[in-house]
Amino acid sequence: MLDVRSIAKRFGSIVALDGVDLRVARGQMVGFLGPNGAGKTTTMRAILGLLALDGGAITWDGAPIGAAVRSRIGYMPAERGMYPSMKAREHVVYVAELAGLTARAASAAADRWLARVGLADRGDSKVQDLSSGNQQRVQLALALVHDPELLVLDEPFSGLDPVAVDVLEEVLLERVEAGAALLFSSHQLDLVEDLTRDVVIVDHGRVVLSGNVDDLRAGSRVRYVDATFTATPDAAWQPVGEVIERTDRHIRLRTDASADGRTLLDQLADAAPLASFSFSPPELSEVFRNVVGGATASAGARTGSTG
Q1: Euclidean distance between CA atoms 154 and 45, whole angstroms
Q2: CB atoms within 10 A of CB 177
Q3: H/E segment holding residue 87
Q4: Is 155 helix (H, G, I), strand (E, B) or coil?
Q5: Residue 271 and residue 240 in contact, taking contact as beta carbons nearer than 8 Å
Q6: What is d(CA 21, CA 207) in angstroms, rounded to the nearest whole number?
Q7: SS (H, E, C) 171-191
Q8: Which spans in 244-305 are helix H?
Q9: Those residues with Cβ within 8 angstroms of residue 78's Cβ, 6 or more apart along the chain or in another chain
């Protein structure tokens, strides 16, 4: 298990991390969320030992993360962390050998992973000659080539087309099912919601919300009603709840979480025959906006953050 306990970091007057806690078990995928400058990248760099902390501790399986453990971590930075003049395959082989694979094993692993990320035919291309999306695929191969036990991926979906996103989702799920621990950040909250059951949300260097995605959504104080009618309701009919969207045969309402779904269903059915009805909590993106907005508004007394 990756265990990050109360880590703190300042850069001069700037508070980057202010007691961040998170845990990722083997076979678990955790989405690490927050606005720009919230502390996500700083936390990831601290896990890799790329910066010294002012306080707190980071362990893997109960022990401090040293060189031996770092060799079993797959890291994908948000910025391009590659040698642009190297050929893609050459680069993957090089990183695999740095991680301890023999030349023969590194060569086989490079071929396997370049094929897995859809770049089997671009191995002889220089990194600088690849598109931004294909460079991102190479970075994924670099992070995975040595079959790491822990994956730390900073914005791995950035710049990928829909096909590449599908490939990356499959690869990440495969690695987690094989027993790897995975921590990844992303601003694409729809992908996070599809991929993972657990998230940690940070803002201004602090954890402002964490837990199971379904539980966090269910804990919201609002619910949304979507109803489609088979006929247009009478023009004089007024729905119960705040109207978010309304057309001739469709309506979307926002109501309190305490509202009774069955009662709402009956009221809508009285207006016109229903083709469909749903009563659901907000999406993760709305939960995120609400908690980050609140945290940002209450952070006035604290100094700004970075990373």
Answers
A1: 10
A2: 10
A3: none
A4: coil
A5: no
A6: 7
A7: HHHHHHHCCCEEEEECCCHHH
A8: 261-271, 284-297
A9: 41, 154, 155, 158, 185
Q: What CATH number is attached to the domain comprising 65?
A: 3.40.50.300
Supply 53's token pair: 């902390």
Q: How confident is the model at residue 159, as a pLDDT? A: 83
Please report the pLDDT score of residue 294 as a whole number. 55
pLDDT attached to residue 304: 44
Predicted local distance difference test score (pLDDT) of residue 266: 93
Residue 111's closest CA among 89, 135, 84, 137?
89
The predicted model scores a pTM of 0.86
Joined together, the tokens standing for residue 295 give: 């945290």
Point out the residues of the chain with pLDDT beneath 70.
Answer: 294-307
pLDDT tens, 126-158?
999 999 999 999 999 999 999 999 999 999 998
**226, 203: one domain:** no
In a domain, 261, yes or no: yes
Q: Count CB neighbours of 140 within 10 A.
A: 25
Q: 28 lies in which domain range?
A: 2-216
